[in-house]
């Protein structure tokens, strides 16, 4: 992980394929039990209730809470049906899923999705829509993963043009091409590898984490892209680890927070705080495999761990944390080890936490965690 910019994605897929034994979620509320201290310098709380809100999602990724109520989920899809085993194919199976009140359903479909063909019955892990926000003029603005370069994207053939970009669903227009940006500039000088992950609005444009390029990129409304900032490598006892920016959140005062997976090693993840006019500084450390974060209504952070164990081994349950935005103090939110390879988190206006769960394959879930 410290030496390859694409390896974080490969490690996540390998972790999923390892088939760890997990406690399955069931429909309806489940009372979580207090957990022992396992995650470095953190405090723990005593109870959280986990409720399945939606099921049968196709490789669900990022979650966005809507200001008027409800949430959106980006679904990376399932690639192309019938794709030959071990061959990468593109299909129009990516989508945006919405939950509001009693409504459950896809509100944007036919979005590009790429996956490698697998044997019948094996889970399909896809790249495609990884985060979503509403478009003020109708439809949605989506960031799509890829894991490659402009050359590898072109090799996928027709229909792959929005992979590795930020685009809008109402007309398919690409607003920011992070793959072209990384392929052309390679800002940190490492392997050329783009894998856009999460986005937030910022002024008239968007800030996007590129977990392959180790950058946070700004996409402006005129279609230009620029490197907002680079995250330095994490100097660990085992060697320097790639930072791997994943989740991103932006406060009303313009302060940006970025989650940093840092090589998939236990206790190595960091949260960066970037105040307007200042360089990035580490706010919190000691967590593992941070994959996303969001601000709650009090201005503090809720951070999500994909797995509490090293990515090199079988996946361990995911973990939720409260993080004080001023002091960096970390408090675990116990979920009874019921988060399985979660990838996205959002906090709604009422303080309820939504997480995409069981995200490897086409039987994913959206769950609500009531603290």
UniProtKB/TrEMBL annotation:
<dbReference type="InterPro" id="IPR011042">
    <property type="entry name" value="6-blade_b-propeller_TolB-like"/>
</dbReference>
<protein>
    <submittedName>
        <fullName>ScyD/ScyE family protein</fullName>
    </submittedName>
</protein>
<dbReference type="InterPro" id="IPR048031">
    <property type="entry name" value="ScyD/ScyE-like"/>
</dbReference>
<keyword id="KW-0732">Signal</keyword>
<feature type="signal peptide">
    <location>
        <begin position="1"/>
        <end position="32"/>
    </location>
</feature>
